[in-house]
Every structure is written in C-alpha cells, then in structure tokens.
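---------- Forwarded message ----------

FYI, see the D-alanyl-D-alanine carboxypeptidase record below. Original note from H. follows.
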Amino acid sequence: MRWLSMGLVLGVAILNAFWGTEQVGSASSQYSAQRSNSVKLIWRHRMGKHVFHTVKGARYSQHLGVRYSENSDLPDVTWVTDAHEKLYRKAKGSSAIYYHVKSADGQHGGWIWRGYLTAGTVPVQTGPDPERPRKAEIPAVSLYTAKSSVAYARAIQTEPVYRLSKAVWQLFPGTKLNLELSRMAIDFPSENGLRDKGMLDKKHIIHFDLGNDWGTFQDTRDQPLTTRLTWLKKRLAQQGLPATKRQSLQGWSIGLDFVDDFPAAATTDEDDVHNVNQKPHGDADEHPLHYAIVLISPERLHSFQAAYGDQQ
C-alpha cells in the first residue's frame, strides 16, 4: 500500500509537470487561492492536436490557481492543444471546458477556456507588403481626422496600419481610449502646465514615451510583432509599468499615439516616409515621435475634460 501511495503521488506530480505549468516562467504570474477554490475538477484527459489563436482571456494552471499571462501579450502565437479538462464553477452552478495549449516553440503554454479560442492559425495579412502599408491603405479615420474617441478606437481595432497600436492598447486591458488625450500624448503638458491646470498628480497621471529610442524601435518594424512587444514590455517595466501595474489600470482613460512611419506610395526611398498620425501643418522635417502613451485615472479624468475638452 505504501508503494502504491508513492506511485500515485509520483503520477500526479508528472501530470502536473506535463499539463500544469508553462515551460518558461512568467513574471506576471499571479496565484489566487480564491479562484482555485471556486472550481471543482470533473475530468481531465489528453486530446489530439488542434490549432487555435486568440487575444482574449488569459492562460492558467490546470486548476486556475495561477494566472500565467494575458493572451493579448502574444497576439501572433498559434496554440496547439494536447489536453482538455472540465471544471465545475461553484458560484455559477455551471461547467466550463478548458484546453491545454502550447506554442509551437514550446516556450509558452497553459489552460485557456475554449470559448476564447478561434480555430486555425493566426491570420496572415495579405497585400504586397503587409508590414509597411502604402498610401492606398491610409485609413480615412486617423488621429487627426477622427471626430470622436469611438471613431479613433474603431480605426485602431480594424485598420492594418494601426496593427502596432492595437497590440500596444491590448497591453493595457480594460482602459478606455480618449481622442483628445491621444492627440496630446507626444506633447503632453509639462509639469508647470499640469500644475497650472491643477492636474499635477503622478499617482493619477502616467506618461510614457520612447524619447530618443524611437529610432531604435522603428528600425525593428520588419521584425515579428511579438518580438517588438517583448522589447517594448521591457521598456514599460523599466519605467514603472510591468504587467501587474498595467493590469491594475482597468477603468483608466488612455491616450495612444503609437504608430510607425512607413514609406510613401510608389517609392522605395526609405527617407520618403509618411505617418498617419502626423499633426496637420506640422514641420515635416522634424520627426513627430509617434510612440507615446498617457493614462489618466477616473478620479482625474474630469479635470482633464474640463481643461482640454472631451471628444467622445
């Protein structure tokens, strides 16, 4: 009996190692005993290989106790299944099925609710040069042509030229895009200007930009989006915005001016560039530095709206 017990313990440990954890630890992993105790395992089995992609939800350990990472952190990853489980949700009195998935390179994995998964590999953008949209692909609605925050948000979510902007916004889940705040992201008022408006409050106002590193980042525009986001998340963490901090900003308003330059239409000249977020009548010889983010808490949003207007 003693050997049988040891064998069972060893077997469980092996299954935990195989299904229960990511291959590479995540700095944003969070353990929640409450979440783990909120579900009861009904069954867990191996399953065949099926491919999915998603930017919704998060990846968890097998009993949901540990949240590894938001799926929006890896928008270009195709997930492959190898197991599934059925959990009973005690509070709701219903069940849910989770799939265990791994990335093709084996670096990431976890359990994802199947309702968040879309069958198939990550869609590949079509066109002559998907990484560098030409003039014909410039959206009708952009930062300075949008009439409302809703219109600008829709452009970011749907236009290929805003693919980077969409991915950056997904790094701040639960935030609400603000048009006027986005237009001020690069030249956000100085501390003196904020003090004059009664808005100097670093607890409730966060400003991030790449500064002189904009060129370094723009030179990576031919690299995979996941690679660029990995670099960017390191910079965000260095400036006080790691994953845990970003996740805590749900309900904040975000100003987003984050988009690459790209070559103008019908030319291969790298110096002949265009930027959809270029400020009208701005100096064409001065780079607009379109890599900036501003966030304002709900408590201070009314002060911003009173001072600068509100275009929702």
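H. also flagged this: The two ends are 69 Å apart (CA to CA).
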